[in-house]
Amino acid sequence: xxxxxxxxxxxxxxxxxxxxxxxxxxxxxxxxxxxxxxxxxxxxxxxxxxxxxxxxxxxxxxxxxxxxxxxxxxxxxxxxxxxxxxxxxxxxxxxxxxxxxxxxxxxxxxxxxxxxxxxxxxxxxxxxxxxxxxxxxxxxxxxxxxxxxxxxxxxxxxxxxxxxxxxxxxxxxxxxxxxxxxxxxxxxxxxxxxxxxxxxxxxxxxxxxxxxxxxxxxxxxxxxxxxxxxxxxxxxxxxxxxxxxxxxxxxxxxxxxxxxxxxxxxxxxxxxxxxxxxxxxxxxxxxxxxxxxxxxxxxxxxxxxxxxxxx
Length: 311
Fold this sequence. Notes:
The N terminus is likely disordered. Strands 5-4-6-7-8 form a 5-stranded parallel sheet, with helices on both faces. By secondary structure, it is α/β, with parallel strands linked by helices.
């Protein structure tokens, strides 16, 4: 459990912590914190006269405890039961779930639906999971591991491109609809997000865009296989604070070595590169004048947040 010394974080008087700081300390975004309060009654912040949420140091400890229990394979309902029964002793719950991992079970169910090309079952399991867990946890614990599993199945010859495309189309439709619904209500800095040239898979970029909306960013989303010379004219027309590029390990090295430096010279704003490409060429990306983010969404957004705050 993380113990927080409020004197090191510039917290307001009496140890009350605003929701954005709580998100930074715990790695749980503000949308999820509000969902835990509204849907599951797990965390009860103090409200200011203007309705702003403020949390205590005990709330921060509780949030970290909830994350730990979820990491140990518990459902959100079981988390609440454990907290109500005995918050100081989560170990028995860990033993209760030692032989059953709900995330692996859901992944197996989704995989069976994908291999059977069963859109109805795929839709049912997907919405069942989202009814129990916030979307960012579903992404981290289920969607990303499943996408990796599909990629490994194809590489090993036990899966097919058709299976991967079937799930990608399903997921792109779900994520795209959610993105367009949520993007209208955000007030934060505006990001221009695009897949690098040669990157035709946009699911990773959509997952990033949804996570960015949870951090109150606004996102202009360009999608797959975007030529880098197309980005400066967009920046000239729209008040963009940063560019975020996404790419897999299969992106041509010339994109990073030749095209990215040219883009960095043409725009006067931070350019971030995420996805597997940023893990393969971190030094080259840095030398080009861009900032590698890695493939962890929460860490990437913390890095973007910190960079823009310094500017």
